[in-house]
Specification:
heterotrimer; A: 100 residues; alpha/beta; Hypothetical Protein Ychn, Chain: A; 5-stranded parallel β-sheet; 4 helices; 20% strand; B: 135 residues; 20% helix
């Protein structure tokens, strides 16, 4: 399963809820305001770092750049993808779920 | 300016994900024509609005972050950023744009517009206003 | 939504005559818009129009009249940084008319 989160983890519980329901081997793609969940050194980083043991995390480059969040601010292991990478992920996983 | 009212614009949303940040900025610029006593507060995800080096080229939407630099020209020079909100997001003032204004009463000396304040200080700033507008 | 034809080139303008796409602007288009406004472009007009374009490039907005007046005064001198001078150049309003000629959107807050 590919989970897609587009809400800021500081404002909504979308990311928390997603992580509670994502099973081992799933992927989590962070887009739009969801990319703030990929930042290290925040109040939310610990949750994502712990989840990253069982899940693969991705963040969309266009949304990172728009918000001025440089790649070196991201939690280790978060992979940055462009729009083509987004499409590849959707094709790679059998289904996807958006946490709006 | 004695009859000027104290206006505070409260910004609590990240840019681009929703329209609030841009709407707030536009209202501030329009409202500046009325020469009131204007302050801006950035807290919660609103602190992300001021993060420097925003580049929306790939996203294909207008990058409105350079417009914050024009606020000084509009005599909007009291910009409060909440310390706790920065810390929760792993940010410091060095991650934000450097915003300045020229002080008319001090031979046009260039001064910093941004002041980092605690939640308690911001609460007092809110209490001191005539009108609070939330975005 | 309308069109403006200048020397074989066609550009899209909105119902009030502002360019839809700022990147299509050139000096011939500026002259054509000015002509439609009944203005002949002099060096003094160009000075203001070029200033507006530079301001937009830096801040991504067209400045309000008050801000424009102050900024022009700072850059080009006090004799030009006043509304009398600017209204003589652009009788229908420096921000509104000069912005149109400069190919910028209508200034924020201008109705």
């Amino acid at each position: 399963m590919l989970h897609i989160v587009n809400k800021s983890p500081f404002e909504r519980n979308s990311l928390d809820s997603c992580l509670q329901h994502a099973v081992k081997g799933s992927a989590v793609l962070l887009i739009e305001d969801g990319i703030y969940g990929a930042m290290k050194g925040t109040q939310k980083s610990g949750t994502v770092e712990a989840a990253a043991k069982d899940l693969k995390f991705f963040a969309l480059s266009a949304d990172l750049k728009a918000r001025g969040i440089d790649q070196d601010r991201l939690i280790d292991g978060v992979e940055v993808v462009d729009y083509n990478g987004f499409v590849d992920l959707v094709a790679e996983y059998d289904k996807s779920q958006s946490w709006l | 300016m004695s009859d000027a009212k104290r206006f505070l614009y409260v910004n609590r949303k990240a840019p681009y994900g929703t329209i609030y940040a841009l709407e707030s900025l536009e209202v501030v610029l329009i409202g500046a024509a009325f020469e009131q006593d204007v302050s801006l507060a950035f807290l919660d995800d609103g602190v992300f609005e001021l993060v420097k080096d925003q580049n929306t080229e790939e996203l294909g939407v207008k990058n409105f972050s350079p417009t914050y630099k024009a606020l000084g020209d509009y005599d909007v020079n009291k910009i409060y950023v909440e310390k706790e909100s920065l810390e929760a997001r792993g940010l410091t003032i060095d991650d934000l744009q450097h915003l300045t204004y020229e002080d008319e009463d001090d031979d046009w000396a260039e001064k910093d517009s941004i002041r980092v304040v605690t939640a308690a200080e911001l609460a007092e700033i809110m209490e001191a206003q005539d009108i609070v507008l939330s975005f | 939504m309308g069109e403006l034809n200048v020397g074989g080139k066609t550009v899209a303008v909105d119902e009030e005559g502002y360019l839809e796409n700022r990147d299509e602007w050139d000096m011939d288009i500026a002259k054509a818009i000015a002509e439609a406004e009944g203005l002949e472009m002099t060096d003094n007009h160009w000075e203001v129009v070029n200033f507006l374009r530079e301001y937009y490039d830096e801040y991504q907005i067209a400045p309000a009249v008050r801000v424009l007046t102050k900024a022009i005064g700072k850059k080009l001198g006090k004799d030009k940084g006043n509304s009398k001078y600017l209204y003589e150049l652009f009788p229908y309003g420096p921000a509104k008319q000069a912005c149109k000629i400069a190919g910028l959107p209508k200034p924020t807050g201008c109705v």
